[in-house]
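dumping this here so i dont lose it
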């Protein structure tokens, strides 16, 4: 077994792509999902098992501290201590600042920031050499939006991902001597459920592609490759890094 990876947001495009790739490369995979009976989690679990991989679903809402604690324990009870954690759970929120509402802001921060921090806390309790663990790797999924404040209407989402990057930097320094490496990946526009509206609007998709230097939208598998590289011995001296994976960033396309 290459290791044991827990993936939050495993039903999403980037999370599921990483789960498939990790299982194919010998990892035991714990898929954290809000409901073990969800269509996406069940399908992914069956797909991995059909190919001879080891996987399980651990039910948890990342906004619930108790759920998170229980999920990590269940994951370790079956596959042993974690060697890798991928924090992929996240939600978007699009609204101009003049139309923001408190409940929506709180929800974004609870999922994208607080839940991620609590998952990192739990991972340390299993990985830290100071606590008897064998070390490990944590990858937090951020966003290119964190680097410029996001596209119009996405300032709250961008702020949440900016918080992920700052937390990753400080956290990485804190646990570097405990055998734990912590990095973030900043995807740009990736073909997932979050960007599915582009497939229904050819003009919008063309405009978005024109704003990306590489002139295309990325694929979830391209992000999964980076995550698994960061978790591998090939990245053994990499911690506190923020890897941009956005086709060169983006700029405002000319009209």
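and the seq i came up w/
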């Amino acid at each position: 077994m290459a290791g044991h990876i827990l993936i939050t947001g495993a039903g999403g495009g980037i999370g599921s792509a990483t789960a498939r790739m990790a299982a194919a490369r010998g990892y035991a995979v714990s898929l954290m999902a809000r409901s073990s009976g969800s269509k996406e989690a069940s399908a992914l679990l069956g797909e991995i098992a059909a190919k001879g991989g080891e996987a399980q679903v651990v039910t948890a809402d990342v906004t619930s501290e108790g759920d998170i604690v229980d999920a990590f324990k269940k994951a370790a009870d079956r596959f042993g201590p974690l060697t890798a954690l991928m924090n992929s759970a996240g939600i978007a929120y699009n609204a101009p600042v003049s139309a923001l509402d408190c409940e929506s802001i709180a929800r974004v921060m609870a999922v994208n920031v607080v839940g991620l921090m609590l998952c990192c806390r739990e991972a340390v309790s299993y990985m830290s050499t100071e606590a008897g663990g064998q070390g490990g790797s944590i990858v937090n999924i951020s966003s290119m939006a964190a680097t410029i404040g996001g596209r119009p209407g996405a300032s709250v989402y961008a702020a949440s991902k900016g918080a992920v990057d700052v937390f990753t930097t400080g956290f990485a320094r804190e646990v570097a001597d405990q055998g734990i490496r912590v990095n973030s990946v900043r995807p740009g526009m990736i073909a997932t459920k979050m960007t599915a509206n582009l497939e229904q609007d050819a003009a919008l998709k063309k405009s978005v592609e024109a704003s990306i230097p590489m002139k295309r939208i990325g694929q979830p598998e391209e992000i999964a490759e980076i995550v698994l590289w960061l978790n591998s011995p090939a990245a053994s001296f990499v911690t506190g890094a923020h890897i941009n994976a956005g086709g060169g960033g983006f700029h405002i396309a000319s009209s």
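Residues 4-190+219-245 form a domain with the Rossmann fold fold (CATH 3.40.50.720).
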